[in-house]
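Fig. S4 source data, part A: sequence.
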Amino acid sequence: MNDLKKVRIDKWLWSVRLFKSRSMASDACKTGKIKSNSNNLKPSYLLSGGEVIEVKKNGFNLIFKVNILLDKRVSAVLAAPCFEDLTTLEEMNKYKEWYIGKSGSEYRHRGEGRPTKKKGAKSMNLKVCILMKMIQVFRNFNLTLIIYYEITGRSSNKKLGSIYH
């Protein structure tokens, strides 16, 4: 593991589990989402230890320092010491806010099992109805603010208007 001098960047990104597949890592390189010193890296770029790379993934700008070079995919536990996360605090907070609620599943009582197709559809319809009601409340709230600003002659908050339209 430590005897490697240089490794292809697409292979390293895949082996430390930053991308699910090597082809996804390669595509990220080809589309300019992997950088080093503000230079786009090709998938064949030979990465050496100690380099700092910038990865743009799912709209987040992540920064990593390469500690250990790998050419074979390893478990997440073994991959963790292979890089150091240098991502800024603001970007990490942005990621955490995005991630909240992504992994949670619905609660079911013990012994209920998976829902039937009919119960699943009913549950989905309920979620859609709740979401539509929330959107309607937001629109009504925004419309109320616009009318209030027009009646009172106060200047409207342009940022607020741009969020909801």
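Fig. S4 source data, part B ends here. The radius of gyration is 24 Å.
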